[in-house]
């Protein structure tokens, strides 16, 4: 069990040598989401408290660098984590004498990123410390333990994702998973899905399907809408104006997704789009479709 009592932290270590004090002690602070930053303030406070531990280990206050640029960012990847990239760069420049983190999972939940950090720390003789002790990545036993901790952190992330995904699938099978609604539908506070209260929005949706039956092609419908200056009413899903109606010019992709959306046929569907791992985003981000 991890000991979170600062008074019982290791105050001295034979792995910290005089030349380490000539460099910086870096305290790395990270929370996975902005919600955690707001709700788990005790964890954030504990991470900032590592400054006191660095001082107890021999660093002066001005030689302690706090990197907290990654608050609200996941540790699953180095992408978008400027703080972690800065940490690796500082170690590579031989500026860091010690890295401190409450847990190894705060530094990285990806084995690739974790072992990259271990390699560069071993090369430049930079110890890593958490609440359990101080580790030297160049020593076999410490490297083995750090590697195990990194593997456990990555496994925890996989388990979290698996639980969340299975929960979503179970709710979707029961038809209880709330999904983004296409133009023409809104969801009340009670959870009931109903037609958009704006009658013009409803009439335009009906007109699009009617014209598709009459004209037979998507391009013909698009030309008709453009020629007559007809715009689509879209309810904003995010931002300070969430829920407000915004009128936008129609385009081919929006019409294609609208005509293929199963909601207009009264069907509940989930999982119609696949995620491209190379892009780390969905391959069909158009409005009105999930």
From TrEMBL:
SMART domains: Resolvase. Residues 182-290 form the Recombinase domain. InterPro entries: DNA_bind_recomb_sf, DNA_bind_recombinase_dom, Resolv_N, Resolvase-like_N_sf, SSR_resolvase. Residues 24-175 form the Resolvase/invertase-type recombinase catalytic domain. Pfam families: Recombinase, Resolvase. GO terms for molecular function: DNA binding; DNA strand exchange activity. It comes from the Bacteria. PANTHER family: DNA RECOMBINASE-RELATED, DNA-INVERTASE FROM LAMBDOID PROPHAGE. This is Resolvase/invertase-type recombinase catalytic domain-containing protein. It comes from Chroococcidiopsis cubana SAG 39.79.
């Amino acid at each position: 069990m991890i000991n979170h009592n600062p008074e019982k932290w290791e105050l001295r270590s034979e792995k910290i040598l005089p030349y380490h004090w000539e460099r910086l002690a870096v305290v790395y602070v990270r929370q996975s989401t902005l919600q955690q930053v707001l709700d788990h303030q005790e964890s954030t406070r504990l991470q900032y408290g590592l400054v006191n531990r660095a001082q107890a280990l021999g660093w002066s206050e001005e030689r302690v660098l706090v990197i907290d640029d990654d608050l609200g960012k996941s540790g699953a990847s180095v992408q978008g984590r400027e703080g972690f990239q800065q940490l690796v760069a500082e170690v590579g420049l031989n500026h860091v004498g010690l890295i401190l983190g409450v847990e190894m999972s705060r530094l990285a939940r990806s084995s690739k990123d974790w072992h990259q950090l271990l390699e560069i720390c071993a090369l430049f003789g930079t110890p890593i410390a958490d609440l359990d002790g101080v580790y030297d990545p160049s020593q076999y036993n410490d490297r083995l333990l750090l590697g195990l901790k990194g593997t456990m952190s990555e496994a925890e992330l996989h388990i979290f994702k698996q639980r969340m995904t299975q929960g979503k699938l179970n709710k979707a099978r029961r038809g209880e998973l709330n999904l983004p609604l296409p133009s023409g539908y809104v969801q009340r506070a009670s959870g009931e899905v109903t037609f958009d209260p704006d009658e013009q929005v409803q009439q335009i949706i009906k007109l699009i399907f009617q014209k598709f039956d009459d004209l037979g092609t998507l391009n013909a419908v698009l030309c008709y809408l453009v020629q007559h200056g007809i715009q689509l009413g879209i309810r904003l899903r995010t931002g300070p104006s969430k829920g407000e109606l915004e009128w936008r010019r129609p385009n081919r992709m929006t019409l294609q997704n609208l005509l293929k959306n199963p909601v207009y046929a009264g069907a509940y569907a989930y999982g119609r789009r696949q995620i491209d791992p190379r892009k780390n985003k969905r391959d069909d981000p158009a409005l009105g479709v999930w």
